[in-house]
Design a protein that fits this description.
By secondary structure, the protein is mainly alpha-helical. Helix content is 70%, strand content 0%. Pfam families: FCD.
Length: 185
């Protein structure tokens, strides 16, 4: 019932609980809420970062890159989530982390489905490395900006794939501008 209250499951009278199907619009709305929260958690973590956390982040990034190169998308998603939540947990604000977890929970099945069906090559982005560097140098604004950039890149890829799949079903080419919201991804 807690998952139903949080929106991670829906329960209709006479039916079993099920994972709700998110639309692209709902995904975008959740993304708009996630961005400032994850930025804040990253900025708070920057002043509390330890060498152990930095070492852990380097290892998680290596796992992420390795999994992507092996096209083991589930492992890559898991390493990416562990990377992000290692940072957010370091914020020392369990209320903030719980809110972020709830938002990830809402989008989890949607992202999982889209990510696993993406016909793509491994990412060549070094954003995780840049985030680690900003954390190491204790630069909260820079680390926050980089987290947002990393999130937006993931959102952009997923939304482009989703819109392309919808357009293919209708026999149309997707409009490149349809993946933007207020000029941002």
């Amino acid at each position: 019932m807690q998952l139903v209250r949080e929106g991670a499951l829906e329960l209709k009278p006479g039916y079993q609980p099920r994972v709700p199907v998110l639309s692209a619009d709902q995904y975008i709305k959740i993304r708009e809420v996630r961005v400032p929260l994850e930025r804040l958690a990253t900025e708070l973590a920057t002043v509390r970062v330890t060498n152990e956390l930095l070492d852990q982040l380097v290892e998680l990034d290596k796992q992420f890159i390795d999994a992507e190169h092996r096209r083991s998308w589930k492992e890559a998603m898991s390493a990416n989530q562990a990377f992000h939540f290692s940072i957010y947990n370091a914020s020392g604000n369990e209320v903030l982390v719980r809110m972020i977890e709830n938002l990830w929970l809402l989008t989890g099945p949607f992202v999982h489905k889209q990510y696993l069906s993406l016909p793509r090559l491994p990412s060549d982005s070094d954003l995780h490395t840049q985030i680690i560097d900003a954390l190491r140098r204790r630069m909260p604004n820079e680390a926050g900006d980089l987290i947002v950039q990393d999130m937006r890149e993931g959102f952009r890829i997923i939304l482009q794939h989703l819109l392309h799949a919808k357009a293919s079903l209708r026999g149309k080419r997707p409009n490149a501008n349809t993946t933007k919201t207020n000029g941002k991804y």
